Inverse folding.
């Protein structure tokens, strides 16, 4: 059976979301790089894979998918085993909690944290733009409020959806990894349960492997 293909560089947070799930389930896969400088993401060939001209795109035989969370869920369903069940769809309540914290990541956690990553890493290192400290300061205040909720949750459970690692936790990996390369990483020290949760994720072999491919240089 041919390996599935993921189109886009591992350093992309959305691509990394898919790759970490593939690693967790032990699936065979191929990463096909997309050259943004050459505008390959807008090429007719890539637009067949992703009509919005974005990454990632995903191919499994004649099936083409886009949108990283949808791809990741497909992967976790296809390769689910009794030992690796990161969506917990066999248990209605557990699956619901996975969904809840996946939504929190997308709509509350990432919107607070990702501007800090952009201003401290992506803009200065990749775009040659200065850091907008006002955006950073405002986002840090938002993130502190979010982390207070996470601290309360993780004081009761080892992981976000319960006492089991799930897709909800893995979703947090890409942007949090880059946040930890900013000058504001020490913020997590103020939230000991959040810090312990993050350290437990970083100890996972799949995440260690992906992290080695994503290492950014500190500004």
């Amino acid at each position: 059976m041919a390996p599935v293909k993921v189109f886009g560089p591992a350093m992309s947070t959305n691509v990394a979301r898919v790759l970490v799930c593939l690693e967790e389930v032990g699936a065979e896969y191929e990463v096909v790089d997309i050259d943004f400088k050459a505008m390959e993401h807008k090429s007719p060939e890539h637009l067949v894979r992703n009509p919005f001209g974005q990454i990632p795109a995903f191919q499994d035989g004649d099936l083409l998918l886009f949108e990283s969370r949808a791809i990741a869920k497909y992967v976790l369903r296809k390769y689910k085993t009794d030992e690796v069940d990161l969506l917990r769809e066999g248990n209605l309540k557990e699956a619901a909690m996975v969904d809840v914290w996946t939504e929190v990541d997308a709509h509350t956690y990432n919107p607070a944290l990702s501007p800090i990553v952009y201003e401290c890493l992506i803009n200065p290192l990749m775009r040659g733009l200065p850091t907008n400290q006002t955006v950073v300061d405002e986002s840090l205040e938002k993130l502190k409020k979010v982390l207070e909720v996470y601290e309360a949750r993780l004081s009761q459970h080892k992981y976000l959806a319960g006492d089991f690692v799930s897709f909800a936790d893995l979703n947090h990996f890409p942007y949090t990894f880059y946040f930890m390369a900013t000058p504001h990483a020490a913020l997590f020290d103020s939230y000991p349960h959040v810090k312990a949760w993050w350290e437990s994720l970083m100890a996972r072999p799949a995440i260690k492997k992906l992290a080695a491919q994503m290492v950014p240089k500190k500004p």
Summary: The mean pLDDT is 94. The domain at 4-79 is CATH 3.40.30.10 (Glutaredoxin). The chain has nine helices and four strands.
